[in-house]
Design a protein that fits this description.
This protein has a single domain (5-313), classed as Arginase, Chain A. It is α/β, with parallel strands linked by helices. The termini are close together. It is 36% helix and 13% strand. Helix 1 (25-36) crosses helix 9 (298-313), helix 4 runs parallel beside helix 5 and helix 7 packs parallel to helix 8 (266-283). The protein has an eight-stranded parallel sheet, with helices on both faces. The chain has nine helices and eight strands. The mean pLDDT is 96. Helix 6 links the parallel strand 4 (158-162) and strand 5.
């Protein structure tokens, strides 16, 4: 089943760093491709501009000191928000507030039943911790959204899949001891790629032991390895009641990415997302929000993201 899908445009698409792998061109090219393929013209696609996230909601996950640092460095328009991966630039704070706002709006609207799905392109920035930026991620919109679902919307079962080539450490470890959040993270072996984490023996702690799953893949892994991992992740995810599925659909595992060493095809990547889509129909009335995540080959990334919206809204 497909249905009404929420999609965001506007100034938040300008999030990106100058002379840097994470460029806003990824988002703008995707929108141009969606326009060329007339996917945005479908009556099932609802195009809106996001509002900045409410400060109280942002603070459900991020510390006051971190928020103030990002705001100050944005005003200065130079320097770094971390130790050298995530540059400051004028308006980076405003753009980050918009992408977190889009993610919170997406999960809220889907839970409320106003839309069946959402694709949030400028989302899935999964490395930032509660107290710091990291790995191109200013704020962790997924962390904020999960906190919002748990603390403001009363959701008791969130299932989060992450197929970005990089381990989503800022989500995985921040909810490591929360049994309400079941996480499956499929990524390139952390011994070969940033952030150097995400090992198979890490399964959660305390009451959350057994609710987390890492599947690390060796460099060169392709569609067969990806889809086998996805199936294992789905079987793991189905073990507990789920009210909402979130998917970080990073495209940097697709063959040809300049940063990673995985070898998925664009078609294999879409099959993975389709599997999560089908799972959402079986276990939580189709409630699904997909985030763009990483991906630094602009052509591959725009094609893959356009295919996801095509799938969700067909």
């Amino acid at each position: 089943m497909t249905g009404d899908t929420l999609f965001f445009v506007g100034d938040y698409l300008n999030f990106g760093f100058p002379n840097h792998p994470l460029t806003s061109e990824r988002f703008h090219r995707t929108v141009r491709l969606l326009q060329q393929r007339r996917i945005l013209d479908r009556p099932t696609v609802h195009v809106v501009e996001p509002e900045p996230v409410d400060m109280e909601v942002l603070r459900l996950f991020h510390t006051e000191d971190h928020v103030e640092l990002v705001k100050r460095k944005s005003e200065e328009g130079r320097g770094y928000l971390d130790y050298g991966d995530t540059p400051a630039y004028p308006e980076v704070y405003e753009h980050a507030m918009l992408y977190v706002g889009a993610t919170v709006q997406a999960v809220h609207e889907v839970v409320e039943g106003h839309f069946d799905h959402s694709l949030q392109l400028v989302g899935g920035l999964h490395h930032a911790s509660r107290s710091s930026s990291a790995g191109f991620c200013v704020f962790n919109d997924v962390g904020v959204a999960i906190s919002y679902l748990l603390e403001r919307m009363g959701i008791e079962g969130v299932l989060y899949f992450d197929i970005d080539a990089h381990h989503g450490d800022g989500v995985f470890y921040e909810f490591y001891d929360d049994p309400r959040v079941r996480i499956v993270d499929i990524h390139q072996d952390g011994r070969t790629l940033y952030p150097g984490r995400g090992f198979d023996w890490e399964t959660g702690s305390g009451k959350a032991r057994g609710t987390k799953m890492n599947i690390s893949l060796p460099p060169g892994s392709g569609d067969r390895e990806l889809l086998r991992a996805v199936q294992a992740g789905i079987e793991f995810g189905e073990k507990a009641p789920v009210e909402m599925i979130l998917v970080q659909a990073g495209t940097d595992g697709i063959r040809g990415d300049p940063i990673t060493a995985l070898s998925y095809s664009i078609e294999g990547h879409l099959k993975a997302v389709e599997s999560f889509h089908q799972l959402s129909e079986r276990c939580c009335d189709g409630k699904l929000v997909v985030f763009g995540g990483g991906g630094y080959n602009v052509e591959n990334t725009s094609q893959a993201w356009a295919n996801i919206l095509d799938l969700l809204s067909a």
